[in-house]
């Protein structure tokens, strides 16, 4: 009977170590990035502002290109209609 209690105690000790190991592995710890750093925050803010302005400039360029394409299509349609009208009158 004494040997059985030793086995139970050994298994309990092993289970306790496994549980503590799982606790250490599974519970998230605060990382260095979680602590506030004013210099890093200022750099990130500056980068975000620069990215935002670059994206806005890209959108503006795309808008201008789209307007120019619409204008060219409209001019092409008008030229085609004019050519068709001229063809009709020449018949």
Written overview of the protein:
This protein has two helices and no strands. Helix content is 86%, strand content 0%. The protein has helices at residues 2-26, 38-90. 0% of the residues are buried. It is an all-alpha fold and 91 residues long.
Net shape: elongated
* Total DSSP helices: 2
Extract low-pLDDT stretches: none
Provide the residue-averaged pLDDT.
87
Q: From the alpha-carbon coordinates, what is the Rg to the nearest angstrom?
A: 37 Å
Which H/E pattern describes the elements? HH
Taking the sheet with the most strands, its summary is: none
From the N-terminal CA to the C-terminal CA, the straight-line distance is 119 Å
Please bin the fraction of helical residues: over 70%
Number of strands: 0
Which secondary-structure class do the elements indicate?
mainly alpha
Fraction of residues in β-strands: under 5%
Give me some keywords for this one.
single chain; 91 residues; mainly alpha; 2 helices; 86% helix
Structure summary:
It is built from two helices and no strands.
């Amino acid at each position: 009977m004494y040997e059985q209690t030793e086995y139970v105690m050994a298994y309990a000790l092993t289970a306790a170590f496994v549980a503590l190991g799982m606790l250490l592995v599974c519970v998230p710890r605060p990382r260095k990035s979680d602590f506030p750093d004013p210099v890093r925050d200022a750099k990130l803010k500056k980068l975000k502002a620069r990215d935002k302005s670059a994206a806005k400039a890209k959108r503006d360029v795309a808008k201008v290109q789209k307007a120019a394409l619409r204008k060219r299509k409209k001019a092409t349609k008008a030229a085609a209609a004019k050519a068709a009208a001229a063809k009709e009158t020449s018949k």
